[in-house]
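#onboarding

Welcome to the new folks! Below is a worked example of what a typical request in this channel looks like: someone posts a single protein sequence, and someone else replies with the predicted structure as tokens. Don't worry about understanding the tokens yet, we'll cover that in week two.

Example request:
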Amino acid sequence: MTKRQNLLYKAFQSTWMMDAKTAGAAFQLFNDMVGAARLKAKYSAIEYDLLEDDGFDYEDTYYNFRLTNKEYPAIPVGKHVNVVRVEGVMMRDEGLCQPGTRQLADWLCQGDADSRVIANILLVDSGGGASDSVKDLADAIGSCSHPVIAFCDGYMCSAAYYVASYCKHIMANDGRNLVGCIGTMIELAGTPKNFTDQDGVVHVRIYADGSEDKNNDYEEALKGNIEPIKQQLLNPLAEDFRNAVEANRPASLPEQRKGRTFFAQDVVGTLIDSVGCFAEAVDKAIELSNINITTMEGYNNIQSIASCADLQQVDEMVTLNAEQLGAIDAQLATLSQERDQFKAEAEKIANLTQEIDSLKETVSQKDARIAALESAINKAQEEEAAAQAMHNGNPAKPEDEFQEATDEEAAEYARKVVNGEL
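Example response:
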């Protein structure tokens, strides 16, 4: 079993910043917890462990989660809005059923440090809590590099408003949400230093010499003198609270910093900035993030894919989600198949062209051979015709009509042949 803080001890030792309704509910809860603690004396440790574990675990993802483009299309693809929930009675350390503000502060800082996160939202429904629950969360808000929006979804009172006042914008979900209750309180229970109970038992509380001031405020309050504890404990804490609200919310009015609780609709422009739904809080967070979002133009091939029609550039960067990557990958796969088909066809054409060139070369060689043979035949025919004409004594060309030479012509022809004149 996970070891947890001693919640009862932390509850009873703390100074509280709570509205009255929350305080009443919290004290009833503490009474129930005291009753549960008494069970520990009645049941064995194993049995009590089972009781303690039954239904008290909490889910981290309930108190800290991310919003993306899938849930809110206004969020750029690939970017996140970090949400931390501040709910119930605020305490610094982890309790039985909820994280402490230290853990909430860690989640806020871890989310803000993520390069994908552009803004943070504190989702608040709390009437306040222990005074020491404020600082860690307030410091975390101040350290964030991205804007932190406080969104009230019911209550944002006392310590919860103290924390929210450090945010860049405060929005309420409904005009009847309750905000304010800027002040501190403490509730004490105990017995005087010296008294005799109903059974006659004498109770004595003794302080050592030199310890006269030890628990003096507490002892005086038990006797009815509340001024010491007010002046030395409550008033300084209340003054810190009022000063922080005045610094963080300069438009707030002095009368709003005296502990009263207000409807959200009555303090717009002073204690809060606006009233709107959660989607509007997301829009405001994106607006305050100052990221530069532009619609892509001139990428017709990519934007012809349905899921990529509305691509955005965020600070000159484009991020694709899984659906868009899948669609582009499928399109590229189709183009790759077509390219491979074209390459195969081109190879076939190249092979056919090579074959055609080879055939042309063969035909050319055969044409040259035919021409050579024809030339040889013609030459042979001419030589044969010339020989025949010489035999006949007729020097006429072969194509001329044959004429028989006279004796004188035959003799002249023979003379020229002998002399090499022909």
